[in-house]
């Protein structure tokens, strides 16, 4: 027997599953939406980004002809296992709370000698150009697969960022008077046919946190948490969220802490 | 240069379930880039799967197949350790071959 299917076909099928899945509650056994997600997860094209990230991470690149093997994600230089599970966290060398991508950016600039503005310019891929950042973030995060998200708020700056993130999550603002909580504070919300997780429910929060960076079928690429937040911000018609800005890291601190205990499985698969 | 494929081949009874992830832009020839110019057709035209050197699948693809496609084929009569080889050729003449061994059922 021969089977051929492309991800587009799977995505189209996913959309129709979503149509009748909306009525059913999330997470029930036999739910068509879950079946569709399961099918996508089994053959996740995001795995290709892990491979590419692996290569980019260990390769000597940039003006300094250096690899990222000396990059410190909080567990010591080059220690990747479990590092993502603890991010964002406070880093003494920068005096700031940093997330995965701000750390990668710092290493690409300081170790490899890349131009900061150039890296930020290519932070998100599009159909014409790949992004090294997306591949690297996916690779580093995937080194924590199977481990539990374990963000700690030991340092005063970590607590402060968490508090700011919490405030931002609940604060309504902008031309449409939207806040994260407008879409993610109640059960049963959706955008068109896309179910929105209720982030006041820890289980749903964990399901979100466990799977970012994620391969997005509609984008044909892996997207990172920074992109997710950037996109949410855009959907609320707010000014563009600065890449690795304090605002984005504060929100990530809040969300990841809320998702503590989630078993990391990167890359995830999203619509 | 084409990125490597990811091949998984697992035995289920005497049937090898071969799953291939391919990194390819699969341009349909209908998309325009940021400058408004049409991005030329660029898609995988031919794909073959061989088991221990014997072709078991020889397919012609079109631009209708998605970007970064997932491809699965089941082959009867396979044994653990059999060598799977997958080759694709696109309309620009680029090609790529990757190999994997059939793993016993886990």
Provide a descriptive summary of the structure in words.
The complex is a heterodimer of chains A (271) and B (106). In chain A, strand 4 and strand 5 (194-195) form a beta hairpin. Chain A has two domains: 1-43; 44-270, Cytochrome Bc1 Complex, Chain D, domain 2, CATH 1.10.760. Chain A starts with a strand and ends with a strand. Chain A has a three-stranded mixed beta sheet with strand order 7-6-8. In chain A, helix 3 (47-58) packs across helix 6 (132-142). Chain A is mainly alpha-helical. In chain A, 44% of the residues lie in helices and 8% in strands. Chain B is mostly beta strands. Chain B has one domain (6-29, 40-101): Sandwich (Immunoglobulin-like). Chain B contains no helices and seven strands. In chain B, the strands form two sheets. In chain B, strands 4-3-6-7 form a four-stranded antiparallel beta sheet, with no helix packed on it. A three-stranded antiparallel beta sheet of chain B has the order 1-2-5, with no helix packed on it. Chain B is elongated. The A-B interface holds A 1-11, 42-45, 47-48, 51-52, 126-128, 220 and B 3-4, 6, 19, 21, 23, 25-26, 31, 33-34, 39, 57, 59, 64-74.
Task: Give a short overview.
The complex is a heterodimer of chains A (271) and B (106). Chain A folds into two domains: 43 residues; 227 residues, Cytochrome c-like domain (Cytochrome Bc1 Complex, Chain D, domain 2, Orthogonal Bundle). Chain A is built from eleven helices and eight strands.
